[in-house]
Amino acid sequence: MSTGKLDLAGECLQNAMDLSGLLVLYSSLGDAEGIKKLAYLAKEQGKNNVAFLCLFMLGNLEECLQLLVDSNRIPEAALMARSYSPSKVSDIVAIWKKEFDDWQVSHAVESATTEQRDGAVLVSGNEDDEEWGTNNEGTPPA
């Protein structure tokens, strides 16, 4: 790159699958088509941070929001919608609320099957193996 052989640099970055390097190169050159291709390549590879930046640079806010939702980054999607696409806020907040409700149910089930006391965790079936009120060294907790 330092010698100005940007085509060769791009080819090397593609062969090495250096998506971050390609992002720097394409954004420096203002290559919108390259950035678009990179966005889809990054999504396929699971490099959501690169894909998001590409989509955002291209102004594809709908796709940015969808990528955040698909990546289970619901709070970030809600904040982005609030700033850039207010018409989508209610839809994304509904998804966020559902995710939170599902988490609460999962947490309640976990709490019902696990007892915690004095730093020791006893799960049904191993009560005889543990002694309440002691840490792993057998000394009383401080």
UniProtKB/TrEMBL annotation:
InterPro entries per the record? TPR_COPA_B
**COPA/B TPR domain ranges (all copies):** 2-97
Q: Where is this region: Disordered?
A: 111-142
Compositionally skewed regions (Polar residues) per UniProt: 133-142
Q: Name one Pfam family in it.
A: TPR_COPA_B
- This one is known as COPA/B TPR domain-containing protein
Question: Which organism is this entry from?
Answer: Kingdonia uniflora
